[in-house]
Amino acid sequence: MSTSEKTATPPSAPPETPPRGARVKAKQRLGDRIFSGTALGAGTIILVVLAAVAVFLVVQSLPAFQADTSGNHILRGQSFWTYVGPLVFGTVWSSLIALVVAAPIAIGIALFISHYAPRRLAAVLGYVIDLLAAVPSVVFGLWGGLVFAPLLVPLFEWLNANLGWVPFFAGQVSPTGRTILTASLVLAVMIIPIMTAICREVFLQTPTLHEEAALALGATRWEMVRMAVLPFARGGMVSAAMLALGRALGETMAVTMVLSTSGAVTFELLTSTNPTPIPANIALRFPEAHGEGVNTLIATGLILFIVTFAVNAFARWIVSRRAEFSGAN
Per the record, which residues fall in region Disordered (predicted)? Predict the structure, then answer.
């Protein structure tokens, strides 16, 4: 036997294969670890900030729930729930009116941009919509109080004269036009760009095969939109509406500068006796608040936080019901 044969290296054994069904852990690179850590940190920060805000609101609101309110200059002897009830009504009422007015307009504009307008015009309109979404609320408040409200007075008088039998348009018309309807219309103008931008992006995500199949079967443009685009975008439209509603619920300056508040609970839209939303009440009363009055206003902020959270949770529930609908089916 030769020396080379004696010193030959025996063939290496084949690599061990993991048992069937066992999970193989992939080796992570440095970039993967940095990215995953950053994403985890960002998500954790969101939860921490939300928890910190909730804890602050709860702790600072506790004095407002005490039984003895005689020394509270905001409550003036009444219970907290008696005080906050009309404010919750004003917040929800004005926001719902704004959403009812804004939703059809925003959906129509988004459909026109995504499926009807020429490409160049659609690009210009999309840019204008995005620009309107960035306008500060104080600008809308100045415009609504100084320009828009006086322009609406003749319309309010006509509605009262011709439709006064409807409870919404009954009562004595405000000579200044600073009513809950004016504030709601200003809110509608503010939330239209947000809802339009989201709906436009959702409409553009509709599978092209669905649209082409509807057109190939002889559907008109509107029938294609009704059968293919709107069902696909239903969840996105609900999300856009709820995001716009959240903006309307928390709006402060525009409503404060437009609305002549009185704290009443009424469904009349044209009179000077108007409900007061929570954000406007906090903005108006906070400069003079002290002691337990500050805690009372913070407690109303806690109620607004709960209402907004409930609205968003309801929206997520609606969207989750449509989660099974996708471009694949």
Answer: 1-22
Residue 207 gets the label, from left (phi > 0), alpha (psi -120 to 50) or beta, of beta
User: DSSP string covering 127-191, please?
Assistant: HHHHHHHTS-HHHHHHHIIIIIHHHHHHHHHHHHHHHTTSGGG-SPPPSS--SHHHHHHHHHHHH
**Alpha-carbon span 305 to 278, nearest angstrom:** 10
137-140: Cβ within 8 A, 24+ apart:
137/190, 137/251, 137/252, 137/253, 137/254, 138/253, 138/254, 138/257, 140/186, 140/189, 140/190, 140/254
- 123: tokens are 């690009």
DSSP state of 88: H
Strand partners, 274: 261
Contact 299, 80 (CB under 8 A): yes
Q: Quick one: pLDDT at residue 185?
A: 92
Instruction: Measure the CA–CA gap between 324 and 229, rounded to whole angstroms.
Output: 16
| Average pLDDT for 23-46 | 80
Backbone angles phi, psi at 70, to 5 degrees: -65, -30
Looking at CATH, the fold of the domain delimited by 84-321 is given as MetI-like fold (1.10.3720)
